[in-house]
């Protein structure tokens, strides 16, 4: 039963993540009305799965992953002078929770892949002269893709 709850969490995240990707690419923003309920749903499903399993360890790991990745993104936002958006910081919470529930390997793989894929995209834009160092890039899609790939490979 806990497997089914976490499968629902992952599929739901993927579906909402696709919508977030579309909006972030189009508008360069991630709406609170989408990302906040997403975070709540991920945590609720993690809590339900922990209750079914009778083990709090994955839930604690998910909470640490969500809060830790959110804090990391908040620091990056402050250090970037706002180049990283507030929506990305909020999206980091359900991403971190979902990945950490699966384990620390998934957490670090999925989190790192967002930067690896985003960096490769940026380098391609620079190499093809379709962008410059000042070109704004929506980072939410890379966070979603990194999380999905991180879950798939672990």
Question: Can you walk me through this structure?
Answer:
The two termini are 20 Å apart. The chain is 82% helix and 0% strand. By secondary structure, the chain is mainly α. It has one domain. The chain is built from six helices and no strands. Helix 2 packs antiparallel against helix 3 and helix 2 packs parallel to helix 4. The chain has helices spanning 2-27, 32-53, 57-79, 86-102, 104-127, 140-153. The mean pLDDT is 96.
Brief account:
The protein is mainly alpha-helical.
Coarse structural class: mainly alpha
Tell me the overall shape: elongated
Number of strand segments: 0
Overall tally of domains: 1
Distance between the termini: 20 Å
Q: What is the quaternary state of this protein? A: single chain
Strand content: under 5%
Q: What is the N-to-C succession of helices and strands?
A: HHHHHH
Question: Count of helical segments?
Answer: 6
Q: In terms of per-residue confidence, which ranges show pLDDT below 50 for 5 or more consecutive residues? A: none
Radius of gyration: 15 Å
Mean pLDDT across the residues is 96
């Amino acid at each position: 039963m806990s497997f089914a709850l976490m499968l629902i969490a992952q599929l739901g995240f993927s579906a909402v993540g696709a919508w977030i990707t579309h909006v972030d690419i189009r508008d360069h923003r991630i709406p609170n009305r989408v990302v906040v309920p997403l975070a709540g749903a991920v945590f609720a499903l993690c809590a339900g799965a922990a209750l079914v399993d009778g083990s709090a360890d994955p839930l604690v790991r998910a909470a640490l992953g969500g809060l830790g990745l959110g804090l990391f993104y908040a620091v990056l936002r402050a250090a970037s002078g706002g180049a990283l958006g507030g929506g990305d910081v909020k999206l980091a919470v359900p991403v971190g929770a979902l990945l950490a529930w699966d384990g620390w390997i998934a957490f670090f793989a999925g989190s790192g892949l967002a930067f690896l894929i985003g960096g490769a995209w940026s380098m391609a834009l620079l190499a093809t002269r379709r962008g410059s160092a000042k070109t704004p890039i929506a980072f939410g899609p890379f966070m979603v893709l990194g999380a999905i790939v991180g879950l798939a490979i672990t």
